[in-house]
Design the sequence.
């Protein structure tokens, strides 16, 4: 009797959209995309409302605090289905539109088919190809790692207009600048401004790029807002992607690679600081401390500490090995936009316009100055221990550690979002997506025809 | 005079039109709006065709009517939407069952595509999709904040484009912008899907992002007014539709059809529901007020829904003055019959309580019952208006409005008593209400020599002074607009600060007497807008900026307030008088005049305001006019048609006596002369000046604490009230002190005579024959007579008929 009812139920609800429900329904291929849109804002590993995490097959089957929500083979008896159909409280989703009939039919069929995970074995984790690196505070011997000649140079995506430049990094040893474009990371020669290669990032928009301490790897973090977040690693010499970590439900906003290359620390709107192993992509730990979006993460050059900061002004230093909280650095009242680390010295850039230098061992503010009226967007240490910053006053500046300005660039066209020093070249990008190059020797004037370098590479000339 | 004024006349005219049409035999055809101006390539204007049938019912006949264009080369027509084709002018012609109507159409720049504007095009999307409702919360929502209902477009622009670069907009791939993917269901959004991909809202947003999310040029047209059409509707039966039309007029003189971007609301969805596209659907019989919100504006239309094919015959109804006519017009539209007039003794008791705050004395009950003069009700009203009780009652009302109370270290018993005495003198002397208000607003000097100056020493925070003045004198609550544009009214933050600017230059210094405060014009001090921190010059609510150079700003405000042309003051005061006499305000509650809390009968309120002005703001004359109307004299008994009515005055409203009046009434009915703490023997509870001087009875029965401007007397029942009457010391104590039964017994009256006298004293009527026969049976035992009579007295004092004014 019961099974007949189930059948009737599933036929009825599937009727209006029979054509749209595939023959074979699996979690990875059909169900997850629905859950991502409708459920994962709350039922993710971070919020885990009612103890339920619907972002992966395993946790979905595991169920909630109240027990299983999916009973393979028994669609009508599965709480998940009852809730999304609205036949039982709590009706889900609690706010906004309910799922459409077709999506419900897919989930119903999936459970009726005994809830298979995937058609193929493609869900198996990719074996990452990362080897631990020796940590050194000095320049590695040998020629600096440069992108090889065989890196792809054709853009993954082109657009008529650039987006704001939010990901920019300079190799500590080679004349290479990396910047984030749409679904790609672009590598430019810092002196010739020549495009050296493109690293595809189909996961979305990179929000952060970093070079490894030895300059051999490029890291990019990012993703799709309110949908997914990942961090990827490439070998700069070959352009080979060697690792992808993170299973976030929103953009990764901040990330850094440990100097020994074994760990990626990342953060985002979920307020958590998470550590992933680069070797197998597994999460090592997740720290809950920040009260707002995590906006900046930085490892100390010796790899002993990792610092993280948030949108409410919180700055925390952690012991990298154990994840234990080392010290909190109170001082910023508004968002912290960036962090940079030297041995024993941490720099933070605040929306309050200041750059603050912190003595990490003492846990004290060593120096604080207003660097950019309206908001300091970015701060970084140059290889020789100076500070480079930029902000809403549209300029990039270089400072010594006493807060004395050594160089001010000419204003960019819009608010200056990122600035780095590569050799003798200052690279600075703005809200319009323009990245300009300045030679320190020129005293802040941009050189050459560099303003056209954008987060979207110029379209190749028509043939 | 100003936009609020225009709005009132708009509303009233709409209602008049519909009421007039009820009397018309021939159907009337209307097109809304009354003209169309198409200004560019993407412009369009929707319209609706209404017929008012011979039975007064309004029907949307846009689909049924024959619609054509005078010159189809100039404009295009798809269903009920006009689009531009070529520059020039033509007209829209409508024909329905032989009746024709046309409206003019002008077309300009049909080839020009205007740039997309953040303020004019995108901001309305946030309102329509209600983004800025949740994200308008003080701390935003999930890390993203917008200004509530879009009061601060500059900051919204900043937050969307530049607060968190790289997150909310993606100008390289606009479709991937979180701003859009959150709203169209592509990305997870706690607030759910707000619009469809490809919908007009989506397209507007995308067009703006594709253009690079530009900010607007500095000089951009501002919305000056918004109109919701038609202004009123009378519809029949459930499930009927009507397409509402919304049009905004801008500072450059242009108009825009904003029906698709306005946000629609209804205060009674059971009677009239409005879809997001402005289509109204009728439901159960009743009245609804539907509103459209666009920019900082909220405008409304009144909708009456009647049952289908209702048999209704309007009988000949006694109409004594204009009040009755205007009340009955509304009742006729509602297909509701007024109740009969109340009997003489009910009228006597009601008029006494309403006008003097006391029960009719025994002798008066007897003489009034026997008086054969047909004008006796009129004479009674005239007499009551002259009694000191009238002065006490209105002093009490004003003392509530002005929150008269002692405050530690701020207002002493002495200054409070002086202030109260001053107020009573004004009412006694019949000082016109506008003059009284003006005296208070301009009060200057020592509050001991000139007690009205206490007006400015009870409250010293300019924010509170501003809000209190607006609520007490104008009946408007502008509190919301302190921090954001009022969500359900027309008040913007600019309006708030403009009004506040009048109170920013008040100087206060201590006098010689420690209780003394000296108020003076400091001549300096400005109100600043919280957004942008700019100085806001004094501006009348919804009105112009007066010249205040070298003047005491309060004088300028008082002149405006006291002006008979003032759109707010007379209406508010007339409503206060009406509510005191009728138990329910035409705007209810009386101190919450607001677009979304409309007058139940705006024409009536306009009329009362007009009469108050004609009577030179004399409360007594307006009160007299109201008391002599048949409407005031209706019975509380309902008939089948007006059973559910609570706000259209088809019957009298039953209400409990307010605390002070009730306490005095218990004493009077017990023959007692009460003594209240700090007052001499025989002084009445209504005369207590200081709200802090209270007693258990007054507090329990909801006396106003006057601690803030929203505090008012409460007449809702509580368990403590019931228990206190039954077992507390007020009823028992007064009975004991008054010792009435004993006195009457010793005077030699028979038990049945005493019983009648108790009835007349307490509930103002003799016992009915049934009551008489059942009670007289209790007098058989002479030993128990006194106890029995006291039981009767006690029972009467605990009866609903006593507690309530009916």
Sequence:
């Amino acid at each position: 009797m019961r099974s007949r009812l189930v059948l009737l139920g599933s036929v009825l609800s599937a009727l209006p959209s029979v054509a749209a429900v595939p023959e074979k329904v699996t979690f990875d291929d059909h169900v997850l995309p629905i859950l991502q849109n409708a459920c994962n804002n709350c039922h993710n590993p971070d919020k885990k409302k009612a103890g339920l995490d619907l972002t992966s097959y395993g946790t979905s089957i595991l169920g909630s605090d109240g027990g299983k929500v999916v009973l393979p083979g028994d669609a009508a008896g599965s709480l998940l289905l009852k809730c999304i159909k609205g036949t039982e409280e709590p009706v889900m989703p609690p706010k906004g539109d309910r799922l459409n009939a077709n999506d419900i039919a897919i989930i119903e069929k999936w459970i009726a088919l005994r809830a298979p995970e995937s058609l193929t074995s493609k869900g198996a984790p990719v074996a990452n190809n990362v080897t631990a690196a020796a940590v050194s505070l000095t320049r590695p011997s040998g020629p600096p790692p440069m992108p090889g000649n065989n890196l792809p140079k054709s853009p993954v995506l082109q657009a008529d207009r650039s987006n704001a430049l939010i990901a920019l990094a300079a190799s500590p040893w080679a004349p290479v600048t990396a910047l984030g474009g749409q679904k790609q990371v672009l590598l430019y020669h810092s002196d010739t401004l020549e495009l050296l290669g493109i690293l595809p990032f189909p996961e979305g928009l990179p929000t952060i790029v970093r070079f490894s301490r030895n300059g051999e790897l490029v890291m990019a973090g990012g993703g799709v807002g309110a949908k997914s977040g990942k961090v990827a690693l490439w070998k700069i010499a070959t352009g080979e992607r060697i690792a992808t970590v993170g299973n976030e439900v929103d953009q990764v906003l901040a990330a850094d690679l440990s100097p020994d290359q074994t760990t990626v620390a990342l953060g985002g709107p979920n307020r958590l600081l998470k550590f992933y192993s680069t070797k197998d992509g597994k999460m090592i730990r997740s720290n809950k401390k920040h009260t707002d979006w995590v906006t900046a993460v930085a490892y100390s050059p010796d790899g002993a500490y990792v610092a993280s900061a948030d949108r409410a002004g919180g700055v925390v230093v952690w012991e990298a090995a154990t994840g234990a909280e080392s010290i909190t650095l109170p001082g910023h009242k508004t968002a912290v936009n960036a962090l940079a680390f030297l041995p024993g010295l941490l720099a933070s850039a605040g929306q309050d316009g200041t750059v603050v230098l912190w003595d990490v061992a003492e846990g004290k503010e060593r120096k604080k100055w207003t660097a950019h009226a309206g908001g300091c967007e970015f701060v970084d240490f140059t290889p020789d221990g100076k500070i480079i910053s930029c902000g809403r006053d549209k300029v990039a500046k270089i400072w010594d550690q006493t807060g004395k300005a050594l160089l001010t660039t000419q204003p960019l066209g819009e608010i200056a979002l990122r600035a780095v020093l590569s050799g003798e070249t200052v690279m600075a990008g703005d809200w319009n997506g323009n990245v300009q190059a300045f030679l320190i020797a020129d005293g802040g004037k941009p050189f050459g025809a560099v303003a056209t370098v954008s987060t979207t590479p110029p379209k190749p000339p028509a043939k | 005079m100003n936009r609020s004024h225009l709005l009132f006349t708009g509303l009233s005219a709409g209602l008049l039109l519909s009421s007039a049409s009820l009397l018309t035999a021939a159907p009337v055809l209307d097109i809304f709006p009354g003209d169309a101006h198409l200004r560019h390539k993407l412009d369009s204007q929707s319209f609706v065709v209404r017929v008012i049938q011979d039975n007064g019912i309004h029907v949307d006949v846009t689909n049924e009517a024959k619609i054509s264009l005078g010159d189809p080369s100039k404009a295009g027509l798809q269903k009920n939407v006009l689009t531009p084709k070529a520059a020039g002018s033509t007209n829209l012609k409508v024909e329905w069952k032989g009746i024709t109507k046309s409206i003019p159409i002008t077309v300009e720049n049909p080839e020009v595509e205007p740039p997309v504007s953040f303020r004019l095009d995108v901001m309305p999307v946030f309102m329509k999709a209600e983004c800025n409702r949740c994200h308008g919360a003080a701390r935003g929502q999930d890390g993203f904040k917008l200004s509530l209902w879009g009061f601060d477009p500059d900051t919204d622009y900043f937050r969307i484009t530049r607060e968190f670069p790289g997150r909310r907009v993606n100008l390289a791939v606009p479709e991937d912008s979180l701003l859009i993917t959150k709203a169209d269901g592509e990305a997870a959004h706690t607030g759910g899907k707000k619009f469809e991909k490809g919908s007009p809202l989506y397209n507007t947003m995308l067009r703006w992002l594709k253009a690079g999310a530009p900010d607007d040029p500095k000089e951009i047209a501002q919305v000056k007014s918004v109109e919701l059409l038609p202004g009123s509707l009378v519809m029949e039966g459930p499930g009927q539709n009507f397409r509402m039309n919304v049009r905004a007029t801008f500072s450059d003189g242009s108009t825009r059809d904003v029906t698709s971007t306005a946000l629609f609301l209804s205060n009674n969805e059971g009677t009239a529901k409005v879809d997001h596209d402005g289509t109204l659907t009728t439901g159960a019989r009743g009245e609804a007020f539907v509103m459209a919100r666009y920019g900082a504006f909220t405008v409304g239309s009144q909708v009456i829904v009647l049952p289908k094919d209702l048999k209704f015959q309007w009988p000949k109804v006694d109409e004594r003055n204009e009040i009755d006519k205007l009340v009955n017009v509304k009742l006729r539209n509602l297909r509701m019959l007024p109740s009969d007039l109340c009997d003489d003794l009910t009228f006597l008791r009601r008029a006494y309580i309403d006008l003097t705050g006391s029960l009719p004395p025994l002798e008066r009950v007897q003489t009034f019952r026997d008086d054969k003069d047909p004008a006796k009700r009129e004479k009674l009203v005239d007499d009551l208006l002259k009694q000191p009780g009238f002065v006490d009652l209105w002093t009490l009302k004003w003392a509530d409005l002005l929150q008269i109370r002692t405050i530690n270290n701020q207002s002493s018993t002495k200054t409070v008593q002086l202030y109260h005495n001053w107020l009573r003198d004004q009412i006694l002397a019949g000082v016109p209400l506008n003059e009284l208000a003006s005296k208070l607003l301009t009060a200057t000097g020592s509050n001991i020599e000139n007690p009205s100056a206490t007006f400015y020493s009870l409250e010293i925070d300019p924010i509170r002074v501003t809000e209190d003045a607006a609520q007490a004198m104008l009946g408007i609550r502008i509190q919301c607009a302190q921090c954001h544009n009022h969500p359900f009214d027309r008040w913007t933050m600019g309006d708030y600060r403009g009004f506040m600017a009048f109170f920013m230059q008040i100087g206060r210094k201590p006098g010689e007497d420690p209780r003394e405060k000296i108020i003076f014009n400091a001549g300096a001090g400005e109100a600043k807008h919280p957004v942008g921190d700019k100085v806001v010059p004094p501006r009348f609510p919804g009105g112009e900026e007066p010249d205040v150079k070298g003047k005491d700003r309060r004088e300028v405000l008082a002149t405006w307030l006291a002006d008979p042309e003032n759109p707010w003051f007379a209406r508010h005061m007339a409503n206060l008088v009406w509510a005191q006499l009728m138990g329910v305000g035409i705007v209810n509650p009386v101190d919450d005049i607001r677009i979304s809390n409309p007058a139940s009968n705006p024409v009536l309120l306009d009329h009362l305001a007009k009469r108050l002005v004609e009577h030179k703001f004399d409360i007594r004359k307006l009160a007299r006019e109201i008391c002599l109307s048949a409407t005031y004299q209706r019975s509380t008994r309902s008939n089948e048609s007006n059973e559910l009515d609570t706000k259209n005055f088809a019957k009298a409203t039953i209400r409990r006596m307010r605390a002070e009046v009730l306490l005095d009434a218990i004493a009077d009915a017990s023959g007692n002369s009460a003594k209240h703490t700090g007052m001499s023997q025989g002084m009445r509870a209504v005369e207590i000046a200081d709200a802090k001087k209270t007693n258990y009875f007054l507090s329990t029965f909801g006396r106003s604490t006057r601690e803030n401007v929203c505090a008012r007397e409460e007449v809702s029942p509580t368990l403590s009230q019931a228990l206190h009457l039954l077992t507390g010391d007020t009823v028992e104590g007064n009975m004991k002190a008054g010792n009435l039964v004993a006195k009457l017994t010793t005077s030699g009256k028979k038990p049945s005579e005493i019983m009648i006298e108790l009835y007349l004293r307490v509930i103002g009527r003799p016992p009915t024959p049934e009551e008489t026969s059942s009670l007289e049976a209790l007098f058989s035992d002479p030993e128990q007579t006194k106890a029995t009579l006291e039981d009767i007295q006690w029972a009467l004092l605990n009866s609903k008929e006593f507690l309530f004014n009916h």
Helices of chain A lie at 2-14, 27-38, 57-62, 79-85, 101-112. Chain A has two domains: 2-112, 168-442.
